[in-house]
Amino acid sequence: MSGARAEAVGVAVPAERPAARAWRLPRNRSVWIGAAGLALIVTIAVLAPYLDTTNPAAIDPVARNKRPGAERVITNDDGSKTVTTYWMGTDSLGRDVYSRVIYGSRVSLIIGITVALISVAIGLVIGLVSGYVRWLDGIVMRVMDGLMSIPAILLAIALVSLSRGAGLRTVILAIVIPEVPRVVRLVRSVVLSVREEPYVEAARALGAPTPTVLARHVLPNTVAPLVVQGTFVCASAILVEAILSFLGVGIPPETPTWGNIMAEGRALFRILPHNILFPSIFLAATVLAVNMLGDGLRDLLDPRVRKQI
Amino acid sequence: MLPYVGRRLLATVPVMATVAVFVFLLLRFTAGDPAAIIAGDSATAKDVADIREKLGLDQPIARQFVIWIGRILRGDFGESFFFKRPVAELITARLEPTLALATCTLILAVLIAVPLGVTAAYRRGSWIDRFVMGLSVLGFSVPAFVIGYALMYTFAIHFAWLPVQGYQRLADGFGGFIQRLVLPSFTLAIIYVALIARITRASVLEVLGADHVRTARAKGLAELPVLLRHALRNASVPIVTVIGFGVAVLIGGVVVTESVFAIPGLGRLTVDAVLARDYPTVQAVVLLFSAVYVLINLLVDLTYTFLDPRIRY
Fold first, then answer.
1. How far apart are CA B230 and CA B218, in angstroms?
2. What is the DSSP string of A154-168?
3. Long-range contacts from B163-167, C-beta under 8 angstroms, 24+ separation
4. Measuring CA to CA, which residue among B139, B229, B126, B231 is closest to residue B188?
5. Are A151 and B286 in contact, with CB atoms under 8 Å apart?
6. What are the chain B neighbours of A160 within 8 Å (beta carbons)?
7. How far is CA A166 from the centre of its chain?
8. How far is CA A168 from CA A108, A174, A230, B37, B262, in A?
9. For residue B6, what are the β-bridge partners?
10. Disulfide-capable partner of B87 in B49, B69, B77, B126 (CB 3.0 to 4.6 Å)?
11. How many other CB atoms sit within 10 Å of the CB of residue B22?
12. Are the Cβ atoms of B15 and A246 closer than 8 angstroms?
């Protein structure tokens, strides 16, 4: 009898434990839709060469500005005919938009994931140190405030102007720097609340050195909020890269990225809107998937926010 | 109140100083000698030396910063490498379109978002609530230029109701001015609406459960006064805060939207300056936009006392 009661209590208590969260996962639609969408884009990016694509950079002067679904028939020497269909049309250099859009997913994903990982890593280190080392806190946070008061896209654009030839690395750096202060703030707020917890005090009283306290007791508390923040950083990085490329200050134009395809299509937008339409559908769907994943994860991992909204 | 305003104004000084140091270093981090860049490709060694002396580039870096910031504070942003005109003059010429676009967007966004958010909170779980939540996720996922092209294609090209691109000065007639602002403002407003509507909904939802709202209803007050006077007013602090933070999104959006709609404003100037590696202009624009952002958020802080008399300084 008492055993059954203990079990009943035991069921009620771990409701917020990781195992119970994992069990709750299937019920969160947002996570599933987001994860499925993201998995689809990742599959497309990985399998890009096998999805009936041609070289996305191949210029073909004969096939310029074709509408979506246009076919090109080449009569071979033996009289047989080879038919090429441009599912999404071609751009003004005759490049196949379908192949460019498919290959474009690679750049977007690389940028999104790299920026998320780097900004979370840098932000985590600065946030931990700043939250725990009091005298550094003031200086670090003033610098972060300063960085945060420059609007993100503007800062990214200005940073790109620093390097002579913009490439993947420059663009990643330009997107990481505006994102870092946001991660720092998050980590710092977690550290500030955790450092007052009795178990941290106990660990310190037992003589645990600061790095040990940070790694063993403070760090685990930052994981859940950082996973959520990381997905949002990823979504925003994909958007910012598209914006930079669209404005002509991002990745070099011959590289197929969604922003570049749209930038190329600007001039003939009135007659041939497909150059903007197709990449924007892929871009919006990808960012939407990542955002939904983030929203769902936040609901799962952060019960406080769930109660508020 | 007044001492508080003074203290808050003082608090913006270190923030703006950090921004200034950063923007200053922006030019110093560039590969090569700034004097050589300013002098151009056909300059002689003497030209470069003259410019170096004139701009104080032969001084220690801390001294250079003081000279530079002194000029900025006097309104001297230097001369644009690319346009060969004083940067301050360039900015003044480009100010009107950006101000007009930002103001229109702000008004439009608040007028759409606040009623949407309040209705969504009031009819929680209804189709309008789901619409607002869906819009807020979508608003963050679709970049401004995609929305811009979609609106342009539908209303300017397909139906031909509005001009496709361009800008007309207010002095040249209000009709043409507003016609050309409709599409860009809507484009820019969507993400802002998503941001504000979401917070309005959450904030009003919280207040609607409060005791004073129940009391207001119990004394027989109609629903509209309950919503506006008792719910919205008490929910206004987070809403105004997010409007302030949203200015950063607005500024980023201005850069993109001006490019889509070919509006000759500060956003377009920023992109042109970056493409031309015109550092004095880039510096000035970044400083200016950041100052505007910091000041607007200062104003937002100050409105709290009017919105919520419990907040005293």
1. 13
2. HHHHHHHTTSSS--H
3. B164/A270, B165/B261, B165/B262, B165/B263, B166/B261, B166/B262, B166/B263, B167/B97, B167/B261, B167/B262, B167/B263, B167/B264, B167/B265
4. B139
5. no
6. 274
7. 20
8. 11, 10, 20, 25, 27
9. none
10. B77
11. 21
12. no
What three-state secondary structure class fits A82? strand
> Cβ of B149 and A143 within 8 Å?
no
State whether residue A252 is helix, strand or coil: coil
Q: List A74's β-bridge partners, or say none.
A: A82
Structure tokens at A100: 């460019």
- Nearest-CA distance from B172 to chain A in Å? 27
Q: Can you tell me the distance from the alpha carbon of A36 to that of A42, in angstroms, rounded to the nearest whole number?
A: 10
The two tokens of residue A33 are 């839709």
User: Residue A151 phi/psi, 5° resolution?
Assistant: -50, 135
Q: Which residues of A touch B149 (CB under 8 A)?
A: 269, 273, 276, 280
Residue of chain B whose alpha carbon sits nearest to that of A294? B137
Hey, what amino acid is at B16? Answer: M
Mean pLDDT by groups of 10 residues along chain B of 313 residues = 80 86 77 67 79 75 83 82 83 90 92 91 86 84 86 83 80 79 90 90 86 86 83 86 87 88 89 82 89 88 79 64
Residues 6+ away with beta carbon under 8 Å from A230: A116, A117, A120
Chain B hits for A158, Cβ within 8 Å: 23, 26, 274, 282, 286
Asked whether B254 and B102 are in contact (CB, 8 A), the reply is yes
Question: pLDDT, tens digit, for every residue of A50-68?
Answer: 877 777 777 777 767 777 7
How many residues in total does chain A contain?
Answer: 309
Q: Read off the amino acid at residue A162.
A: L
pLDDT digits (tens, 9 = 90+) for B241-277: 888 888 888 888 898 899 888 889 898 898 888 888 7
Which pTM does this prediction carry? 0.84
B29-48 pLDDT, tens digit per residue, is 665 566 776 677 777 888 88
Structure tokens at B292: 């505007």
The residues facing A72 across adjacent strands are: A84
Burial (CB count <10 Å: 0-12, 13-18, 19+), residue B238: middle
The predicted pLDDT at position B131 comes to: 87
**DSSP code for B152:** I
Q: Give CA angle at B89 (B84, B90), nearest 5°.
A: 65
Sign for the CA dihedral angle at A86, A92, A94, A98 comes to negative
Decide if A5 touches B, using CB distance below 8 A.
Answer: no
Give yes or no for a contact between B259 and B188, defined as CB atoms under 8 angstroms apart: no
Tokens of A55: 């070289």
Q: SS3 for A97?
A: helix
